[in-house]
Amino acid sequence: MASVLAYPVRMVNNFVNRRVLAAAAFAAVLAACGSEGSSTGPVNPPPTPTAGWLTLQVNTPRTDDGAIQLSVSGPGVDSARIVGYDGFVTVSATGADLIATGNMSNGTVAQIHVPNIARSAEYQVAVVAAAARDTYALQDLNGYRAVIVH
C-alpha cells in the first residue's frame, strides 16, 4: 500500500517544483523587461534630412575685381546659382565650380542647394582665381577668402 501512495506524492512534488521554476523564470523575465534602470529606452529615429540653400560669400582685398572663380566640394551638391552677378555654374557629384562676373565686391556671390543643410560643415569653398575688371589680368589671391554660411 505504501507504494501506491508514494506515486501520487511524487507527482505532486514534481508538479510543485515545475510551478515554482516557472514562476521564478517568469519573474526574472518581467524584471529584465520592466526595470526602470534599463539602458535601452525608446529609440528615436534619426532626423529627416532637410534640403536647402547654403550661401557662398567672398571677401576680396581689391576694388577692381571683374570675375571670381569659386570651387565647392562636399557630399552632394544638387544645384548652384550665382546671386547678384552674371556668371557660369557647373555641378558634379563631388561639388560645384562657379564663375561670377561683374563689379565684384565683398558679400554674397552664389548659393548651392544641398540635400541636407544640417551637414553644412562638410562643404568647403575656395577662391580659385580672380581677374581684374578692365584688363582681365589674373589677380594675386593673397587676401581673398570665401566662406559658406547657412
Strand line-up in the sheet with most strands: 3-6-1-8
Q: Which sequence of SSEs, written as H and E, runs from N to C?
A: HEEEEEEEE
Class computed from helices, strands and strand pairing: alpha+beta
Please, how many helices?
A: 1
Q: Supply Rg.
A: 35 Å
CA-based shape: elongated
Helix content percent band: 10-25%
Biggest beta sheet summary: 4 strands, antiparallel
Strand content: 35-45%
Tell me the number of structural domains: 2
Low-confidence stretches: none
Mean pLDDT: 85
Number of strands: 8
Q: What is the distance, rounded to the nearest whole angstrom, between the alpha carbons of the first and last residues?
A: 93 Å
Task: Output the keywords.
150 residues, 2 domains, four-stranded antiparallel beta sheet
Descriptive notes:
By secondary structure, this protein is α+β, with helices and mostly antiparallel strands. It folds into 2 domains: 1-33; 52-149, no CATH class. The chain contains 1 helix and 8 strands; from the N terminus they run H-E-E-E-E-E-E-E-E. The chain has one helix at 2-34, and strands at residues 52-59, 65-73, 79-82, 86-92, 95-101, 107-114, 124-132, 145-149. It has a 4-stranded antiparallel beta sheet, with no helix packed on it. It is elongated, with a radius of gyration of 35 Å. The model has no long low-confidence stretch (mean pLDDT 85).
